[in-house]
Protein backbone atom coordinates (compact mmCIF):
# COMPACT_ATOMS: atom_id res chain seq x y z
CA UNK A 1 0.00 0.00 0.00
CA UNK A 2 1.45 3.42 -0.89
CA UNK A 3 1.69 5.96 1.94
CA UNK A 4 -1.53 8.00 1.55
CA UNK A 5 0.08 11.29 2.41
CA UNK A 6 2.80 10.89 -0.25
CA UNK A 7 1.91 13.15 -3.16
CA UNK A 8 5.01 12.93 -5.31
CA UNK A 9 7.56 10.13 -5.39
CA UNK A 10 10.77 10.37 -7.39
CA UNK A 11 12.94 7.26 -7.55
CA UNK A 12 16.35 6.96 -9.14
CA UNK A 13 15.55 9.57 -11.78
CA UNK A 14 18.21 9.89 -14.45
CA UNK A 15 18.24 12.09 -17.53
CA UNK A 16 20.81 12.04 -20.29
CA UNK A 17 20.43 14.44 -23.20
CA UNK A 18 21.65 12.72 -26.35
CA UNK A 19 23.11 14.77 -29.17
CA UNK A 20 25.54 14.44 -32.05
CA UNK A 21 28.06 16.52 -30.03
CA UNK A 22 28.03 13.94 -27.26
CA UNK A 23 25.72 13.00 -24.42
CA UNK A 24 25.07 15.27 -21.41
CA UNK A 25 24.17 13.51 -18.17
CA UNK A 26 22.03 16.29 -16.65
CA UNK A 27 20.62 14.24 -13.78
CA UNK A 28 22.55 11.35 -12.30
CA UNK A 29 20.31 9.72 -9.69
CA UNK A 30 17.65 11.72 -7.86
CA UNK A 31 15.24 10.27 -5.28
CA UNK A 32 12.91 12.10 -2.90
CA UNK A 33 9.28 12.21 -1.82
CA UNK A 34 6.94 15.10 -1.16
CA UNK A 35 3.87 14.92 1.05
CA UNK A 36 0.57 16.57 0.26
CA UNK A 37 0.47 20.19 1.45
CA UNK A 38 4.25 20.64 1.71
CA UNK A 39 6.27 23.59 0.41
CA UNK A 40 9.59 22.21 -0.80
CA UNK A 41 12.36 24.36 -2.28
CA UNK A 42 15.10 23.06 -4.56
CA UNK A 43 18.47 24.78 -4.82
CA UNK A 44 21.75 23.76 -6.42
CA UNK A 45 24.70 25.06 -8.40
CA UNK A 46 24.03 26.70 -11.75
CA UNK A 47 23.43 24.16 -14.50
CA UNK A 48 22.95 21.24 -12.10
CA UNK A 49 19.71 20.18 -13.79
CA UNK A 50 16.97 21.94 -11.80
CA UNK A 51 14.88 22.82 -14.86
CA UNK A 52 15.45 19.35 -16.31
CA UNK A 53 14.21 17.84 -13.05
CA UNK A 54 11.05 19.99 -13.01
CA UNK A 55 10.28 19.16 -16.64
CA UNK A 56 10.61 15.44 -15.87
CA UNK A 57 8.32 15.80 -12.83
CA UNK A 58 5.72 17.76 -14.83
CA UNK A 59 5.71 15.12 -17.57
CA UNK A 60 7.11 17.58 -20.13
CA UNK A 61 10.31 15.57 -20.59
CA UNK A 62 10.80 11.81 -20.57
CA UNK A 63 13.47 10.64 -18.10
CA UNK A 64 16.15 8.27 -19.33
CA UNK A 65 15.35 5.98 -16.41
CA UNK A 66 13.72 6.04 -13.00
CA UNK A 67 10.23 6.72 -11.78
CA UNK A 68 8.04 9.76 -11.11
CA UNK A 69 4.77 8.98 -9.34
CA UNK A 70 1.94 11.35 -8.52
CA UNK A 71 -0.68 10.01 -6.11
CA UNK A 72 0.71 6.53 -6.69
CA UNK A 73 0.34 6.74 -10.49
CA UNK A 74 3.34 6.98 -12.86
CA UNK A 75 3.65 10.37 -14.59
CA UNK A 76 3.97 9.75 -18.33
CA UNK A 77 2.88 13.12 -19.73
CA UNK A 78 1.53 16.52 -18.69
CA UNK A 79 -0.98 15.98 -15.90
CA UNK A 80 -3.95 18.11 -14.79
CA UNK A 81 -2.74 17.47 -11.23
CA UNK A 82 0.22 19.79 -11.82
CA UNK A 83 0.53 23.40 -12.90
CA UNK A 84 3.85 25.00 -13.78
CA UNK A 85 4.87 28.65 -13.40
CA UNK A 86 8.03 29.58 -15.29
CA UNK A 87 10.36 32.55 -14.96
CA UNK A 88 9.41 34.07 -18.33
CA UNK A 89 5.99 35.43 -17.37
CA UNK A 90 6.00 37.73 -20.39
CA UNK A 91 6.08 34.80 -22.78
CA UNK A 92 3.57 32.69 -20.87
CA UNK A 93 0.67 35.18 -21.10
CA UNK A 94 -1.40 35.95 -24.20
CA UNK A 95 -1.18 39.71 -24.93
CA UNK A 96 -4.52 39.82 -26.77
CA UNK A 97 -6.43 38.42 -23.75
CA UNK A 98 -7.31 40.33 -20.60
CA UNK A 99 -6.11 39.17 -17.18
CA UNK A 100 -9.44 37.38 -16.79
CA UNK A 101 -9.15 35.79 -20.22
CA UNK A 102 -5.63 34.53 -19.49
CA UNK A 103 -6.68 32.99 -16.16
CA UNK A 104 -9.76 31.41 -17.72
CA UNK A 105 -8.14 29.89 -20.80
CA UNK A 106 -6.85 26.56 -19.36
CA UNK A 107 -10.18 26.00 -17.59
CA UNK A 108 -11.91 25.74 -20.98
CA UNK A 109 -10.45 22.21 -21.17
CA UNK A 110 -12.19 21.22 -17.93
CA UNK A 111 -15.79 20.08 -17.76
CA UNK A 112 -17.16 22.97 -15.73
CA UNK A 113 -20.34 25.00 -15.91
CA UNK A 114 -19.99 28.66 -16.87
CA UNK A 115 -20.84 29.56 -13.26
CA UNK A 116 -18.18 27.25 -11.75
CA UNK A 117 -15.58 28.57 -14.17
CA UNK A 118 -16.40 32.20 -13.40
CA UNK A 119 -16.12 31.55 -9.67
CA UNK A 120 -12.73 29.82 -9.95
CA UNK A 121 -11.40 32.66 -12.10
CA UNK A 122 -12.70 35.41 -9.80
CA UNK A 123 -11.39 33.63 -6.67
CA UNK A 124 -7.93 33.15 -8.18
CA UNK A 125 -7.66 36.76 -9.38
CA UNK A 126 -8.80 37.96 -5.96
CA UNK A 127 -6.32 35.66 -4.17
CA UNK A 128 -3.35 37.21 -6.01
CA UNK A 129 -4.62 40.75 -5.34
CA UNK A 130 -5.50 41.66 -8.94
CA UNK A 131 -9.28 42.13 -8.75
CA UNK A 132 -8.84 45.77 -9.78
CA UNK A 133 -6.89 44.78 -12.93
CA UNK A 134 -9.06 41.90 -14.18
CA UNK A 135 -10.00 43.77 -17.39
CA UNK A 136 -6.46 44.96 -18.16
CA UNK A 137 -4.19 43.34 -20.71
CA UNK A 138 -0.80 41.87 -19.64
CA UNK A 139 1.15 44.61 -21.44
CA UNK A 140 -0.57 47.20 -19.24
CA UNK A 141 0.83 45.55 -16.09
CA UNK A 142 4.20 45.59 -14.30
CA UNK A 143 6.40 42.47 -14.34
CA UNK A 144 5.34 41.54 -10.81
CA UNK A 145 1.66 41.89 -11.72
CA UNK A 146 2.15 39.74 -14.80
CA UNK A 147 3.69 37.03 -12.66
CA UNK A 148 0.66 37.29 -10.34
CA UNK A 149 -1.53 36.61 -13.39
CA UNK A 150 0.54 33.49 -14.17
CA UNK A 151 0.11 32.35 -10.55
CA UNK A 152 -3.66 33.05 -10.65
CA UNK A 153 -3.95 31.00 -13.83
CA UNK A 154 -2.10 28.12 -12.16
CA UNK A 155 -4.19 28.10 -8.96
CA UNK A 156 -7.52 28.55 -10.80
CA UNK A 157 -6.75 25.21 -12.43
CA UNK A 158 -6.75 23.68 -8.92
CA UNK A 159 -3.65 21.55 -9.33
CA UNK A 160 -2.54 19.21 -6.58
CA UNK A 161 0.95 20.59 -6.87
CA UNK A 162 2.18 23.95 -8.07
CA UNK A 163 5.60 23.67 -9.69
CA UNK A 164 7.55 26.94 -9.88
CA UNK A 165 10.82 27.33 -11.81
CA UNK A 166 12.68 30.42 -10.59
CA UNK A 167 9.45 32.39 -10.91
CA UNK A 168 10.74 35.63 -9.36
CA UNK A 169 14.22 35.81 -10.89
CA UNK A 170 13.24 38.64 -13.26
CA UNK A 171 11.51 41.03 -10.85
CA UNK A 172 12.94 43.69 -8.53
CA UNK A 173 13.75 42.92 -4.88
CA UNK A 174 10.68 44.58 -3.36
CA UNK A 175 8.27 42.87 -5.77
CA UNK A 176 10.08 39.62 -5.17
CA UNK A 177 9.51 39.88 -1.42
CA UNK A 178 5.78 40.54 -2.01
CA UNK A 179 5.50 37.56 -4.35
CA UNK A 180 7.32 35.31 -1.86
CA UNK A 181 4.74 36.28 0.76
CA UNK A 182 1.97 35.58 -1.76
CA UNK A 183 3.28 32.02 -2.24
CA UNK A 184 3.48 31.48 1.55
CA UNK A 185 -0.08 32.82 1.88
CA UNK A 186 -1.50 30.60 -0.90
CA UNK A 187 0.23 27.63 0.65
CA UNK A 188 -1.11 28.40 4.14
CA UNK A 189 -4.66 29.42 3.17
CA UNK A 190 -5.34 27.09 0.26
CA UNK A 191 -3.16 24.16 1.44
CA UNK A 192 -1.51 24.08 -2.00
CA UNK A 193 1.53 21.82 -2.33
CA UNK A 194 4.40 23.78 -3.85
CA UNK A 195 7.69 22.66 -5.39
CA UNK A 196 9.79 25.78 -5.85
CA UNK A 197 13.12 25.97 -7.68
CA UNK A 198 15.31 28.96 -6.96
CA UNK A 199 18.90 30.18 -7.33
CA UNK A 200 18.45 32.27 -4.22
CA UNK A 201 19.56 30.57 -1.00
CA UNK A 202 17.83 33.08 1.30
CA UNK A 203 14.61 32.69 -0.67
CA UNK A 204 14.74 28.89 -0.33
CA UNK A 205 15.11 29.11 3.48
CA UNK A 206 12.50 31.88 3.84
CA UNK A 207 9.89 30.01 1.77
CA UNK A 208 10.51 26.34 2.33
CA UNK A 209 9.48 23.81 4.93
CA UNK A 210 12.21 21.67 3.37
CA UNK A 211 15.14 22.56 1.15
CA UNK A 212 16.55 19.95 -1.22
CA UNK A 213 20.16 20.82 -2.02
CA UNK A 214 21.24 19.31 -5.33
CA UNK A 215 24.82 18.36 -6.15
CA UNK A 216 26.63 19.52 -9.27
CA UNK A 217 25.85 17.58 -12.44
CA UNK A 218 25.38 14.57 -12.77
CA UNK A 219 22.98 15.44 -10.02
CA UNK A 220 21.77 13.75 -6.85
CA UNK A 221 20.10 15.06 -3.68
CA UNK A 222 23.03 16.12 -1.55
CA UNK A 223 20.90 17.16 1.41
CA UNK A 224 17.22 17.10 2.39
CA UNK A 225 17.08 19.86 4.99
CA UNK A 226 14.12 20.53 7.28
CA UNK A 227 13.59 24.26 7.79
CA UNK A 228 12.70 24.46 11.48
CA UNK A 229 11.62 28.12 11.42
CA UNK A 230 8.21 29.15 12.79
CA UNK A 231 5.48 28.70 10.13
CA UNK A 232 4.32 32.33 10.49
CA UNK A 233 7.01 34.07 8.46
CA UNK A 234 7.69 37.72 7.95
CA UNK A 235 10.27 39.35 5.68
CA UNK A 236 11.82 41.37 8.51
CA UNK A 237 11.53 39.31 11.69
CA UNK A 238 12.08 35.85 10.14
CA UNK A 239 15.15 36.97 8.23
CA UNK A 240 16.51 38.54 11.44
CA UNK A 241 16.32 35.25 13.38
CA UNK A 242 19.69 33.69 14.31
CA UNK A 243 18.30 30.33 13.10
CA UNK A 244 17.57 31.85 9.67
CA UNK A 245 21.22 32.92 9.43
CA UNK A 246 22.41 29.47 10.53
CA UNK A 247 20.26 27.71 7.92
CA UNK A 248 21.18 30.01 5.03
CA UNK A 249 24.88 29.73 5.94
CA UNK A 250 24.55 25.95 6.04
CA UNK A 251 22.85 25.81 2.60
CA UNK A 252 25.42 28.24 1.18
CA UNK A 253 28.23 26.04 2.47
CA UNK A 254 26.61 22.91 0.98
CA UNK A 255 26.36 24.58 -2.44
CA UNK A 256 30.00 25.69 -2.29
CA UNK A 257 30.97 22.09 -1.49
CA UNK A 258 28.79 20.89 -4.39
CA UNK A 259 30.49 23.33 -6.77
CA UNK A 260 33.92 22.14 -5.67
CA UNK A 261 32.81 18.51 -6.09
CA UNK A 262 33.57 17.83 -2.43
CA UNK A 263 30.56 15.61 -1.85
CA UNK A 264 30.19 11.90 -2.37
CA UNK A 265 27.18 10.37 -4.11
CA UNK A 266 25.18 7.99 -1.91
N1 LIG B 1 17.82 20.22 -24.55
C1 LIG B 1 19.05 20.02 -24.08
N2 LIG B 1 19.96 19.34 -24.81
C2 LIG B 1 21.19 19.09 -24.34
N3 LIG B 1 21.64 19.47 -23.11
C3 LIG B 1 20.77 20.15 -22.34
C4 LIG B 1 19.44 20.47 -22.77
N4 LIG B 1 18.82 21.15 -21.77
C5 LIG B 1 19.71 21.27 -20.77
N5 LIG B 1 20.89 20.66 -21.10
C6 LIG B 1 22.08 20.55 -20.26
O1 LIG B 1 21.72 19.86 -19.06
C7 LIG B 1 22.36 20.43 -17.94
C8 LIG B 1 21.31 20.88 -16.93
O2 LIG B 1 20.54 21.96 -17.48
P1 LIG B 1 19.33 22.63 -16.70
O3 LIG B 1 18.84 23.77 -17.52
O4 LIG B 1 18.35 21.59 -16.31
O5 LIG B 1 20.06 23.16 -15.39
P2 LIG B 1 19.62 24.28 -14.34
O6 LIG B 1 20.13 23.83 -13.02
O7 LIG B 1 18.15 24.52 -14.45
O8 LIG B 1 20.42 25.53 -14.89
P3 LIG B 1 20.43 27.05 -14.34
O9 LIG B 1 20.93 26.97 -12.93
O10 LIG B 1 21.40 27.75 -15.24
O11 LIG B 1 19.02 27.55 -14.45
C9 LIG B 1 23.23 21.57 -18.47
O12 LIG B 1 24.53 21.05 -18.66
C10 LIG B 1 22.59 21.91 -19.80
O13 LIG B 1 23.55 22.41 -20.72
TrEMBL record:
Alphabetical list of PROSITE patterns matching this protein: ABC_TRANSPORTER_1, ABC_TRANSPORTER_2
What are the entry keywords? ATP-binding, Nucleotide-binding, Transport
The molecular function GO annotations come to: ATP binding; ATP hydrolysis activity
> ABC transporter domain spans which residues?
8-241
Protein name, as recorded: ABC transporter
User: Which source organism does the UniProt entry give?
Assistant: Micromonospora sediminimaris
Q: What is the lineage of its organism?
A: Bacteria, Bacillati, Actinomycetota, Actinomycetes, Micromonosporales
Amino acid sequence: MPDRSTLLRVEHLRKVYESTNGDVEAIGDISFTMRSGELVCIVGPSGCGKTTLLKCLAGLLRPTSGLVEMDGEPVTGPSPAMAVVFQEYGRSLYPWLTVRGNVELPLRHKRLSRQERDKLVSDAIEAVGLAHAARSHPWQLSGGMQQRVAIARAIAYQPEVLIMDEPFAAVDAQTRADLEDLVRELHANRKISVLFVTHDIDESVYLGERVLVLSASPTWVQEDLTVDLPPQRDQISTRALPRFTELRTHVYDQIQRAKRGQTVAP
